[in-house]
Design goal:
single chain; 451 residues; disordered N terminus; binds aspartic acid
Length: 451
Amino acid sequence: MIDESQAGHPPNVKFWQVWRWPLHWQILAGLFGGLLFGVVLVQFGQANPKFSPSVFAAQWVKPFGVLFVNSLKLIAIPLILASLIKGVSDLQDMSRLSSMGGRTIGLYLATTVLAVCIGLVLVNVIGPGRGLPQDVQEKLLGDQAGKDRVEKIAASAEKEQGKGPLQALVDVVPENLVAAASNNGNMLQVIFWAIFFGIAMILVSPEKVAPVKAFFDGLNAVILMMIDLIMLFAPLGVFALMASLIAETSDWRVFSALAWYSLTVVLGLAVILFGVYPALVVTMGNMSYGKFLRGMLPAQLLAFTTSSSAATLPVTVECVEKNLGVDPKVASFVLPIGATVNMDGTSLYQAVAAVFIAQALGIDLSFYQQMTIVVTATLASIGAAAVPGAGMVMLVIVLAAIGVPQSGLALILAVDRVLDMCRTTVNVTGDAAVATIVARAVAKKQVGEKS
Ligand code: ASP
């Protein structure tokens, strides 16, 4: 479906070929259409005080976006189970799995640390917090709604704080599969179960495992078709999400006050997207970056509008397999893990945000504190769930580690949603870049083994 030649349609859904454009154009049309509609609603609200754009959008527009995102989320866990079990069992030997696993984790960690370092360099050089006007700062810190939100964020972060260093490992192994699969936040546990099951399948004799394998192969195909069907509604879903986002944003003036901070984050994300990833994809993945970006555009646009790597995962998998030609065995292993642990955009954002808050509050950070940010932002981004706003919750942990008051979060709340859209786009792109590199390494190894 995501294949351009099929104009965004699954081959078996001919009766529904109502949209003729390639998928990325459909999504772009939805995005700009939604933006325009949101602006019209806001203008209409200004001209008619009785009309509330945010209430109208919440009641009549947003539900279509929520329906779309929910149906994508609905697919995430079954997709991980079916595609990962199929992918791992297709590998047929354990050494391939371990070398692929080692490469994947190594690349994920390296790109995350690099992202934090880029963020730190930029925020220290640009110093967006040093120029924040006093009145803006007082307004943001004194706002009661902001204080309430910070309290809520801190409460969600509390569960994560004070855990021992090995707790993250313990959290990966579920006590019960059904309980783990009942919550999209437990994706890592489901991934663990699927890999474990796939490994056991490799070890069982081929005759015995054949029906199980056939079942998961079939299930995987059905789930991919479900994604294709959901994506027929992508333009409408994206339209609704964008329109309601614009209509619900009440104060656009804070954006100009926080322009330097936002620009620093966006600049850092651009360095990753147009500097780091091309270097990796071209040299280690042996693919032109133009082809890579064109292939990934539908997933990137979806990540941008939904702000959720988890909701985007089904489309990321399809883009990487069909448009970039990555071996499904690799994609189905690398991408679900990446969606949950590899968040380069989030880690960069956390580094910039932590230093920005410190600068604005007049706190000088020592070299040791900046190094602490490298470690904690890396871990915090790994621990962040692939859902909107999760990066900000985990930012509380970074702030606590360097002794910056969490009340400072109020300074960046207003622009967080927009920056979340941008960082999620980078998060998803990073997973695909690593998938491309791992696929190339696996293919090279196979050629070496044959010759
Ligand atoms: N929304 C991001 C994601 O899903 C996580 C975050 O930074 O908030 O990748």
